[in-house]
Amino acid sequence: MRGKRTATGAALAAGALAVTGLAFAPTAAAVTPQSATISANCGIFGGGAATLTATQSGGSATLTLTSTAIRTPVAVAQDSIASTLTMVRASGGTTVFSGTKNPAMASGSAVTVGPLPGTVAPGDSLEAYGGSLKMVIFGITVTCTASAKQSPGPFVFS
């Protein structure tokens, strides 16, 4: 009986240590780089330099696009642009970030969309070149594509 208590006590202690280890384990993962620059072409809506900013928390990530070269043709209310950002995975296929997050923007303002949520896996390497950003504004679809690879390089998620 005494041996059974010792074994039970040891098992409980090991379990408590495991739970404590999980409690102190890091939950947020890192993405590198945290921001990258692309040259975007949005057809008749303009184009030029844009910055993509990435964040990651485990298997969830967000991307935000900001550009002073791409301008809104009309005033836009907060969270009214339906955006779909498609990134190309180095391993093949694509990863989609989508949502309706944007600040209110006056006519002629620089464009900002995001943070747009998406799902990533450890080791995913995502590049804007070959993908697209589609924004639906008042029923009009604006499609932007990168004209070259992003700099300093693809987003790599851990």
From TrEMBL:
Provide the leader sequence positions: 1-25
Under the heading InterPro entries, the entry gives: TAT_signal
Keywords in alphabetical order: Signal
Which domain of life, per UniProt? Bacteria
Task: Please report the name of this protein according to its UniProt entry.
Answer: Secreted protein
